[in-house]
């Protein structure tokens, strides 16, 4: 008598094998696949929020350094420390992305957080040691930039390993709120510590990111295979074939060997550059991130130098107020991700946001001084349009391109592609604050003209991709309309939705 086949087993419900899991996860009860994904989102969110929190102190203490700590009386020298961090960060990004696709992402990220936290605290040590050497502070920022470059390629690659599909833009848009949450938390912590001496504004955030690195080391599973699950799409699928309790994802787990890692070969930088769209989005991010990081590093200083409602505010108050730019950024990142999912048009969404950023910047500069309420409203709108495309490109776009169909599924490129795009963007991020240190001598009008021009160039660079996406949108709508007229609404055509990866 023929033995009946075993019942189909959900590809994500088999009991995970935890031999390759981090030590902290081994001590926990067995978790479901979705619970693991939630934990991954939470830990990577916390990790990169702490990265950004540790980058906020320089902007908060600028006024204090300019007033009382030689050699920083010249704003251009404050810009020099910014450019030292961001240049080393962008250079380190290319190396970090190359390593991220080859090393254990959990250990790589955790070690970068612990060492990066120590480097942030090193800058603050200058206060306690009464050091007034520009070379010391520049060197501290170079070290911090190199170590912090481990963060972004790692967290995007980890999230990309666990999430894909038509809701990737929205999920990563919400997840990318860590950037603004980190900026907000960093501003609040640094401003609160400023009263005890500006050195504490660096030491405390540095210690927090090091503690976050310990959590990552003990509890973050960078690959589904680490906890016994094979790669799976964002929408679970039911395996049609199963033998003795093993499913189609079992081979994927086995392929991971005993390391819990994806066994596919990592691509080189040249192959990653050849992926369609990588170079264009990288150049676009150069200018988009220039605008975003100029606000990150100079907004509190600008607010403290500009009378709002006829009054000047303290450095600490300006730091607290500046967080509202990032609140707008959170909304912008989520909105950009959602719209791009619905339109299946990442470039078009990013370009529209960049074009709208131009008038928002001029309105904020021209009318933000009328009252605090007006300043808050215009600052949040500016944050929405400035940070929206920046968030979209560094998350969903990078993840899409890192798993592009041209790779044919046989290569890992998430960290490398992320590093190329964000590394190029970070060069712009280094240039913006540096130029602002000099241009602000002529007045803030010139700074905002520079920012508007950069936003315009960022949008124009996407023109070729925008034309292609618009043609595809029109074609999908026509196909959808034809299907509706023919009574074939369930033909499988899904206009305005990103196809499953």
TrEMBL record:
Residues 239-260 are annotated as: Disordered. It holds the Pfam family MFS_1. GO terms for cellular component: membrane. SUPFAM superfamilies: MFS general substrate transporter. One of its GO terms (biological process) is phosphate ion homeostasis. It comes from the Eukaryota. Residues 35-470 form the Major facilitator superfamily (MFS) profile domain. The keyword Transmembrane applies. The chain crosses the membrane at residues 75-96, 108-130, 136-163, 175-196, 202-221, 273-298, 318-339, 351-370, 376-401, 413-435, 447-466. Its main location: membrane. InterPro entries: MFS, MFS_dom, MFS_trans_sf, Sugar_P_transporter. It is a multi-pass membrane protein. Keywords: Membrane, Sugar transport, Transmembrane, Transmembrane helix, Transport. It is found in: Membrane. PANTHER family: MAJOR FACILITATOR SUPERFAMILY TRANSPORTER 16, ISOFORM B, SUGAR PHOSPHATE EXCHANGER 3. Belongs to the major facilitator superfamily. Organophosphate:Pi antiporter (OPA) (TC 2.A.1.4) family. This is Major facilitator superfamily (MFS) profile domain-containing protein. It comes from Urochloa decumbens.
